[in-house]
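Appendix B. Extra example for self-study. Work through it before the problem class; the solution is given directly after the inputs so you can check yourself.
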Amino acid sequence: MRRSIAAALGVAGGMLAGAAFIRRQGASRERADLYFEDGSMLSLTNGSPGAERLLPLAREVIRNARAR
Amino acid sequence: MDAQQALADLTEISSQIEAAVVFDDQGKVAGSTLAEGGRADELAKAVAALLAAAEGVKTGESVLTQLEVSTGEGSVFVVRDGKTSIAATTGGNPTAGLVFYDLKSALRSVKPAAKSAPAKKKTATAAKKTSTAASAKKKTAARKPATRKKPDAS
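Solution. Structure tokens for the complete assembly:
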């Protein structure tokens, strides 16, 4: 009985850890890439001040495009 | 090519693109994949705001030509050429290079339409010139035999 409870708890804990890992991976994928005429490129990852300004605006663009 | 036609071709070619809009620096929409005009205007406004924010982020003097913002909900792509811009939204994990390529192709096919108007005028004037030149030639051709006939007649 105790073993099965421990196994269930282990599985649940593993699932939670996996979900958190996937979520974190997804969040870290959020970024803004800016390309300039001279060939230079600026990549702003989630958490940087530039990305913090651009990401909400991009979400709004996507919501506008998908609104029915 | 018409902007609307270019966007229709774009969505046919690229299955990754969900919605797209072509607009100028004044926010005037030239074409959109969205059915309602009001929604296209809103989308163009939102993209213009995104571009303005991106302009604020940049550090150098060079002009911003392309932009990709990837979020958990999807991605936004913008390609700008002079005053005309094309923006598209996609789902998660798009093939960025392919989307940029398709957007550039679409924008290139839209741009000549704006430039072709003066070109048509030129061709019209050129046609006029050729027609006047042809008529002048005809006149001279018509005159020449007359001048030739005189020595023949004598």
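Self-check: Chain B touches chain A at residues 18-19, 34, 39, 42-43, 46-47, 49-50, 53-54, 56-60, 62-76, 87, 89, 96 (CB under 8 Å). If your reasoning did not lead you there, revisit section 3.
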